Amino acid sequence: MASTRFSLRYFSVAILAAVLLLAVACFGGSDEPDTAIEDLPVEFQRLSEVWDLLVQEHIDGGELDPAAISDGAIRGMLVALGDPYAGFLDSEQYSLETEDIRGFFGGIGAEVGIRDGVMTILAPMPDTPAEAAGIRPGDVILEVDGVSIQGLSLLEVVQLIRGDKGTKVKILIRHLSSAEPVLIEIERDIINLKSVELLMQVGRIGHLRLSGFTGTTHDDLKEALERFERSQGLGIVLDLRNNPGGLVSSVVDVTSQFIDDGLVLYQIDAKGNRRNWGVKSGGKALDIPMVVLVNEFSASASEVFTGAIIDNERATVIGATTFGKGSVSNLWPLNDGSGINFTTARWFTPNGVLIEGEGITPDVLLDPIEGDEDDDIYLDRAIEILKKQMSRGG
Questions:
Q1: Residue ranges of domains in the chain
Q2: Which pLDDT score is estimated for 2?
Q3: Rounded distance, CA 350 to CA 307, Å?
Q4: C or N: which end of the chain has fewer Cβ atoms within 10 Å?
Q5: What is the pTM of this model?
Q6: H or E element: which one contains 174?
Q7: Distances 241 to 30, 40, 199, 238, 297 between C-alpha atoms, Å
Q8: What is the pLDDT of residue 112?
Q9: How many CB atoms within 10 Å of residue 317?
């Protein structure tokens, strides 16, 4: 992506460009009727007048670049939606964006989301360049390689950060606990999406950490549960802190390992249609005592899991209210190899709690605690609660 600085003025022009693009499509180049054109609102009829005026009277009217106007037009249309997850990717960017479907991609290893209208690091992935460089959950992104990200879509920011292994990127960020920005240079690497880790703690408690919901998470989870059984584990702290989410199919499979019946979630689409995602049979961890640990950067699919656990009364959830990203954003390919992304549905917990913009409130809210960074005080608290439950037999 070019290092053009985006501004409010740019987007005003882009929205106008969207109008012009539709004018070209609707009124220029062909005398053949088009059923799609007939379905456009009557307000669009004035677009041809604007396009003709620009071509004939603008000082650069004879040098208009249709490709550039087309890209700007699409971006402007998506901005006009007011959808924070809407964005446009050209063909090269679209190809890069679909890499993580294969389980790896080139980048720094940090998940980015939108919180209170700003681009925020949800979490650096474990053992990645982002984690090694000091990127933290809650960091606000201000610039990438000297380019202000103000006005950019989430997809555009992600594409600025990603790149080939061995190349470097400079990110200006502001830590959650600091008012002064910090410039961090990170060398990109190949990021493999490892999402499940099990560590056995004293007292045969399994610390089961899920850092995402990818295409391999369910199989990795089953292996971890088998290791837990071989270790004669007694209870599990399932840790979803800083988990940015992932695939809905993955979270349904994962949740079904812990719940024997009922709903995982349901979603409502743009037409008001409801789709239920039910629990699948055959779960291997239905009766294992468990506490779920979340924080303010547990997002998307991890919130779906948390909501299902609470509504099905499967386990105690402790921590902080979660991020509040509960919508379905689809990436649609266009004919020229580019693509657009926008929200198509919203998620609800089995009992009808809206996740988007609200988050999930735990059963037990943990206050911020001052302590040694090497001590995981919240994990200790989760283990303490779990042991008390096991001692009571519930």
A1: 8-80, 104-192, 196-392
A2: 33
A3: 7
A4: C
A5: 0.73
A6: strand 168-174
A7: 56, 46, 15, 9, 6
A8: 85
A9: 26
Can you list the residues of the chain whose pLDDT is less than 50?
A: 1-20, 23-36, 101-104, 371-372
Instruction: Answer yes or no: are the C-beta atoms of 243 and 212 closer than 8 Å.
Output: yes
What CATH fold (topology level) applies to the domain 104-192? Pdz3 Domain (2.30.42)
pLDDT at residue number 26: 44
Report the catalytic residues.
300, 311, 325
First to last CA, the chain: 55
47 token code pair: 């677009």
CATH class of 196-392: alpha beta
| Reduced 3-state DSSP string for the chain | CCCCCCCHHHHHHHHHHHHHHHHHHHHCCCCCCCHHHHCCCHHHHHHHHHHHHHHHHCCCHHHCCHHHHHHHHHHHHHHHCCCCCCEEECHHHHHHHHHHHHCEEEECCEEEEEECCEEEEEEECCCCHHHHHCCCCCCEEEEECCEECCCCCHHHHHHHHCCCCCCEEEEEEECCCCCCCEEEEEECEEEECCCEEEEEECCCEEEEEECCECCCHHHHHHHHHHHHHHCCCCEEEEECCCCCCECHHHHHHHHCCCCCCCEEEEEEECCCCEEEEECCCCCCCCCCCEEEEECCCCCCHHHHHHHHHHHCCCCEEEECCCCCCCEEEEEEECCCCCEEEEEEEEEECCCCCECCCCCCCCCEECCCCCCCCCCCHHHHHHHHHHHHHHHHCC
Q: Would you state the pLDDT for residue 24?
A: 47
